[in-house]
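Weekly modeling sync, notes
Attendees: S.R. (lead), two postdocs, one rotation student

Agenda item 3: backlog of single-chain predictions. S.R. asked that every request posted to the team notebook include the full sequence so nobody has to chase files. The rotation student volunteered to paste the first one in as an example of the format we agreed on. Action items at the bottom.

Example entry:
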Amino acid sequence: MSARILVVDDVDVNVRLLEAKLTIEYYDVLTCHDGQTALTLAAKEQPDLILLDVMMPGMDGFETCRRLKARAETRHIPVVLVTALDGRADRIRGLEAEADDFLTKPIDDVVLLARVKSLTRLKQVMDELREREESSRRMGVGDEAAARLRTEGGRVLIVDDDESQAAAVAAELGREHRVVVETDPQAALAAAKGPLDLIIVNVAAQSFDGLRVVAMLKSGDARRAPVLAIVEPSERPRMVKALELGATDILPRPIDTEELSARVRTQIRRKRYTDFLRQKLDSSLEMAVTDSLTGLHNRRYMAGQLQALVGRATHGGSPVAVLVLDIDHFKAVNDGFGHDAGDEVLAEFAVRLATNVRAVDLPCRMGGEEFVVVMPGAGLEDARMVAERIRRDIAAAPFRVMGGEEFLTITLSIGVAATTGAGDTPEALLKRADEGVYEAKAGGRNKVVARAV
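Predicted structure, as returned to the notebook:
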């Protein structure tokens, strides 16, 4: 199935009708008849979209939506309120409950399917980010984190050739957000290269093709920014096409300022939630390959890179050299001055190491006081010369620790090895370099030993 949809309505005929329409389009449909059951099913089944009737006995659709959006495990699920009401107050009330959109009965099948495709596509993007976290609560998106996702102060770009309409929209949004208006689509595309929280496009513009602007925005630098399309309600094909091209919401003309503000807040909230997930993902990926103390790559990253480089070297590619570096008498630093001083030495050592290798080299911390530098394209003699430069630099100037109260002379022993051709392995390469370290230490430390075999 292309997506799982939960249909909630207390009238069984309505449920069966929606279920039939969606099943024909190969959607997996779940159904229930009241708000409380909807809350339970949504948390358990994690649907991709919820079609929620407004007029239900007991807990109505507004309250059900509000509770869905208040829970960490269901907040990310798009909710479309389905109602026979077409009043302005009800639309605004639904948007304030954080509903993602409205469908009015009798439901237009074309609009229904366009809206379903648009919102499930958005949900899939968010799921790809959320799946990389253990759970929304454990990654910090609980009630406190959600409260930090503000809806004001957004960066909004308006693309509209109707100057009076654009001015009215800008005036309304300018109370809460930073707004830029562009009447020329090329200027708008240039402005969209900067960071934005929302782009509003008049797809009914007279002097340019608004749909083409939407398409270009969603394929360019601004593809992650949500697009709110201003449409004429009578132009149904244009509205459907805007959703197909990637518009995330629709605003009918004439524009109701309260509805505009509510829809903008919804879009900015979702954008910031998605940005939050991406930031968490980027941080997790960085932590997975970076040593937190020194900022160098860690053992896991080094192993993956070395495997690929040695593989190419053994099949006729450029050679690879490695340096294994071990700080001499590091235990004495920890025992004599404390582990905080030891950490200061390691952090300063990492800085000096990184400044003494080539831009293409990969300095890594293996653990403790042991470091490795992977040197793509380097032979044994080239690597030995770099190792000597590092050794001299470390020994030349004392390390300041404990707020500058103590100055420690640090030296290190370095083993050097390079690939030998077919049959070599990362493990054998590191072992030869490691044997060089042991030989350097046995020879009095503060030495470099290069081992060809």
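Discussion: group reviewed the output briefly. Confidence is low (pLDDT under 50) at residues 134-147.
Action items: rotation student to repeat for the remaining queue; S.R. to check formatting next week.
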